[in-house]
Amino acid sequence: MNGDRRNFLFVSITGLISDIAWQVAKEGHEVRYCIEDEKERDIADGFVPKVRDWQREVDWADVIVFDDTLGQGEKAKALRANGNAVIGGTPYTDRLEDDRSFGQEELKKEGINIVTYRDFDNFDDAMAYVKANPERYVIKPSGTAANVKRRLFVGDEDDGQDVIRVLEAYKKSFPGEIRQFQLQRRVTGVEVAVGAFFNGKQFIYPLNVNFEHKKLFPGNIGPSTGEMGTAMFWSGPNKLFNSTLKKMEAKFASEGYVGYIDLNCIVNGNGIYPLEFTARFGYPTISIQQEGMTTPIGQFLADLAAGANPKLKVKSGSRSGCAWSFHHSRSMTMPHSAPDSSMRQSFSREVFPKRCISRT
């Protein structure tokens, strides 16, 4: 597929892909954007054209982009089977992320080391387990609750008493929100993720190595957030990749997965321990990656969706980005009738995380 103008349909649950939709539009492609969650639908107003029913736009679209898991993989797989060019997962790859234990067991099948864990759907059982097996643990909610990153808790006390106290608090405050969760033995080391784009048949190089910062305050303290910032660099195949994601390549190919996939790990003197999959674009990871590409993102996504082996050309050096949080109000929403592009450009510097990206 060449660099001709294409019709892109972006389908989002909560407006995560807004920045990339805007970038694709700026490259001269036609863009239509659907945000399914009614409370989030005004995100990116004035930047890209919006539609309410994405299914009516399927015949119009040359490329369809899904930006999440949580059931989007089933839609993407059905459209691919119908002959559409689609960026998105499958029910299998959705489950790798949404069901943490399933993801760990799939890694184990490929001979990859995993951290000891146990699943729970009852807070009392989890507290009894920690009392019987005192140790440092990490509490990891599964399913939709996993998207609320401040619910993830990393224990510091060797006897697990801090974990027990948090479990007691969750039992009182979030019994309906956290229905299933995992207790994972805490392993110390360097937390690092490796990810790559996949075209339905194989990984596309270079791959990406990134370091997420999730704590709210400097010094790695405070509650976990969805993301405070990420540092990254591009790389050829390396030990981290070959020991983990590369071993899943045949499985991803059998699924026909198309998109980006990432595996977060802890690395120490004893080995590499995968923690969790991100079977979709990362945020703001994809925006930082786009800033590090010399290949236009629209052309790259179109080639990827078509099953081609796109030439991903990237800038040298490491890159970092931060995520800003704003109070959501309609006074911050740019209307569709914004009079000129300069006004939107100025507003974008206040809103989109990629505007806080640096190169070293």
Beta-strand segment tally: 15
Strand content: 25-35%
Gyration radius from CA atoms, angstroms: 21 Å
Shape: globular
Category by helix and strand content? alpha+beta
* Element string (H = helix, E = strand): EHEEHEHHEHEEHEEEEHHEEHHEHE
**Number of DSSP helical runs:** 11
Helix content: 25-40%
Largest sheet: 7 strands, antiparallel
How would you name the oligomeric state of the polypeptide chains in this document?
Answer: single chain
Termini separation: 33 Å
Pick out the low-confidence regions: 327-360
**Overall pLDDT confidence:** 88
Strand order of the largest sheet: 13-12-9-10-11-14-15
Which descriptors would you attach to this protein?
single chain; about 350 residues; alpha+beta; seven-stranded antiparallel β-sheet; four-stranded parallel β-sheet; globular
Strands, helices and their partners?
Blueprint: E1 7-12, H1 18-26, E2 30-35, E3 63-66, H2 72-81, E4 86-87, H3 91-98, H4 100-109, E5 117-120, H5 123-132, E6 137-141, E7 153-154, H6 161-173, E8 181-185, E9 190-199, E10 203-217, E11 221-235, H7 239-242, H8 249-255, E12 258-268, E13 271-278, H9 285-291, H10 297-305, E14 319-322, H11 341-351, E15 357-359
Parallel strand pairs: 1-2, 1-3, 3-4
Antiparallel strand pairs: 5-8, 6-7, 6-8, 9-10, 9-12, 10-11, 11-14, 12-13, 14-15
Helix pairs in contact: 2-3, 3-4, 5-6
